[in-house]
Amino acid sequence: MIQIENLVKIYKLNKRKMRELKTDSTTKIAVNGVSLTAVPGQIYGLLGPNGAGKTTTLRCVATLLKPTEGKITVCDHDTVKEGEAVRESICFLTNEIKLDEHFTADYLFDFFGKLHGMSEEEIKARKDELFTVFGINDFKTKKIEELSTGMKQKASIAVSLCHDPKVVIFDEPTSGLDIVTARVVLDYLKVLRERGKTIIVSTHIMSEAEKLCDRVGIIINGKKVIEGTIPEILEATHMPDLEDAFFELFKENNPNYEGGVSNEKQ
Amino acid sequence: MKNSKAFIIMKKELFRVFGDKKMIMSLYIMPAIIVIIVYGLMGKMIGAMESDIEEHVATVTVVNGTDDLKAIMDSSGYKETADVTFLTEDEYRAQKDELENGILEGDNDLVIYLDPDFESKVKDYENGSAVPELDVFYNGTEEYSSQAYYNFSSAVEAGYQSKLLADRFGNLGYLTAFTENVKEIYKEEKANTQFMSMMLPYLIVMMLFAGVMSIGVDAIAGEKERGTLSSMLITPAKRRDIVLGKLVSMAILASISAVVYCIAMVIAIPLMGMDSAGLSSGGFGAVSFGFVQIIELFLNMLVLVYLYVGIVGLLAVLAKDTKAASSMISPVYIVVILFGIMTMFSFGREIPFYRYMIPIYGNALAIKDLVSNELQFINFISSIAGTLVLGIAFTVAITRAFESEKIMFNA
Asked: Are A169 and A61 in contact (CB under 8 A)?
């Protein structure tokens, strides 16, 4: 289970970043008071536009960033005080974290399995299962640098899941994937849900969220603006689908929004 | 140990190099081959240049050459190294510009001009009158011309002067107050190792750093840039285990690189000296270490690698990418080279022990003393302690940097 209570993350800006963001402020509030709960056996979808604070929230859950305020617990472990225990329970997949391209998927699976304290037998059994599910056996001895984008993503997912984590955190898992590979990934997330894993997924793709997620939280400008099941969100926004609901919420929270170009300061 | 996370990470870092033939080639084999080829070629070229100069028959013109000068040229064997043309004053005046231009262009090597009354002026010399002059024209920028002048002054000029003085005074013994009887007293091992005690510390401190630099930048800054370091940060491995695994593997890879480089030098230096009389003495063969010295050298190199790994590791962590890391590390490399050069010219002075505590410089001093068998225990300990303390400080700083989200994730 993941519990986020009143998460605030403020970045300090250096002069270069202040220039880039065209702001006089020396800080940027990336996440502002977000609370949410993701429970076992459910897929929680974290939706929001670019720069909304989704990735920052997930990085805080994965212990890579420390919250400025608020508290996060994963499987009852505090992410700040018990970082190692949290990292034992989770897998975190994001585009910014990549597999070392000098190695094969086979080698990296063993390497990360050992770092998670798994025995050789456990590693072999997990590898057989995941490599079969994702169709990696055909290219498991090829270096990552020789693989296509889809193959790399499959390898990344398999390696990240090597230790059979209780909590799965995927940041835009289908980004850049072809429709077939994306389907394999989404189907496996459903399998993980059936196995009682706690899953939190961030995505831009509303249709994907509609099909996949049991609960959805929408973050805009660092704040969670709505949370609930898909029917609950559609009812609250009086919209026919999630995409329209999202745009309605986005416009409400960005009064200066003018048809496709946001002039918000992020 | 086998299951420690630091060990697992270290093994992976080593496998990255040793599991890749191209990496082994580019990191170890090619540099060694290049060193051997370059030094071998240098030796061949220097040897060829030396023998070419020695075998060259110089074109020498002597104006108003006297019988005594001609006789000494014959008896000294000078004519074996030079093709000598004797000119009269009139002939010289007619060709003067041509001869001087010939020296400038390298067609002529040497012109010796004697006054037409040179010998009578020498003979009739009286106290207070002007000393007769022998004019020599040569080109100091041309090897052949310089060698021709050197041969003339050493083989002919001194003998000719003695002959003229003997004629003037009857007995040359009157002009000699005493002669020197020199007996050189020295430690043979020190004499044999002087060249190496100058070169070896410099080479070791420089080569070890170069090894660490080439490996460390990619191992940390490269992984950070590519996002592969983060994949380790989301595992249960402690930051200090990741740092330890990285640093130890870097130290091992850099040490192997230094050893390979040293072996290449051992092979290359004799190759360099083989064809050159000037370079044949004082090679690695002149250095011999006892067991204690080997241990002292090993420990010195070990702490030096540890410090280098700390320096390179910290700068690589602080840098955003490999380019920034390289530009941050380059000034440190220059300082390391400077420390190495400083020890090359510290002969004959008593160096206080606290100077041995200056990291890198103190290690270079200790290695220098080791080669000449003069390393005192207090200086050895000082050199190890100073470097070790700084190395530990850098390791702590790297671990802190790994824990900083601003440094690791630019947050």
From this structure: yes
Q: Residue A88 is nearest to which of B8, B19, B236, comparing CB atoms? A: B236
Q: Looking at beta carbons, which residues of chain B come within 8 Å of A115?
A: 5, 8-9, 232, 235-237
Q: Identify the closest residue of chain B to A99 by CA–CA distance.
A: B228
Residue B361 to residue B346: CA distance in whole angstroms:
11
For A92, the closest chain B residue by CA position comes to B234
Q: How far is A100 from chain B (nearest CA, A)?
A: 5
Residue B287 scores a pLDDT above 70? no
**Which residue is closest to B228 within chain A, CA to CA?**
A98
Take residue B379 and report the two structure tokens written for it.
Answer: 């200086």
CB contact under 8 A, B231 and A100: yes
Q: What is the ipTM of this complex?
A: 0.88
The strand pairing partners of B60, in sequence order, are B84, B110
Q: Which residues lie below 8 Å from residue A265, measured CB to CB, with a gap of 6+?
A: A21, A22, A23
According to DSSP, the residues that pair with A224 across neighbouring strands are A219
**B236 interaction partners in chain A (CB closer than 8 Å):** 84-85, 87-88, 115-117
Q: Does residue B26 sit at the A interface (CB-CB below 8 Å)?
A: no
**Parts of chain A with a pLDDT under 70:** 258-266
Give B218 to chain A, closest Cα distance, Å.
12
| Higher pLDDT among residues B211 and B238, named by residue | B238
SS3 per residue for B103-161: HHHCCCCEEEEECCCHHHHHHCCCCCCCCCCEEEEECCCCHHHHHHHHHHHHHHHHHHH
B231 in contact with A at a CB cutoff of 8 Å? yes
Q: B227: which chain A residues are within 8 Å (Cβ-Cβ)?
A: 96-98
Cβ A59–B406 below 8 Å, yes or no?
no
Looking at residue A266, what is its pLDDT? 41
Mean pLDDT of B13-18: 92
- Between chain A and chain B, how many beta carbons pairs sit less than 8 Å apart? 69
- Which contacts qualify for B98-105: CB closer than 8 Å, 24 or more apart? B99/B61, B99/B137, B100/B137, B102/B59, B103/B137, B103/B138, B103/B139, B103/B145, B104/B139
* Domains defined for chain A, CATH in brackets: 2-95+166-178+185-253 (3.40.50.300)
Q: List CB contacts of B402: < 8 A, sequence separation 6 or more.
A: B233, B239, B240, B242, B243, B317, B408
The Cα-based distances of B361 to A187, B79, B292 in angstroms read: 62, 53, 21
Nearest to B42 by CA among B228, B273, B239: B273
Distance separating alpha carbons of residues B226 and B217, to the nearest angstrom: 12
Beta-bridge partners for A168:
A91, A199
Q: How many angstroms separate the CA atoms of B87 and B73, rounded?
A: 15
Q: pTM for the full model?
A: 0.77
Interface of B with A in 236-295 (CB under 8 A): 236-238
Tens-digit pLDDT profile for residues B176-200:
777 778 887 776 666 666 666 777 7
Q: What domains lie within chain B, and their CATH numbers?
A: 5-47+189-409 (no CATH), 56-175 (3.40.190)
What is the distance in angstroms between the Cα of A30 and the nearest Cα belonging to chain B? 10
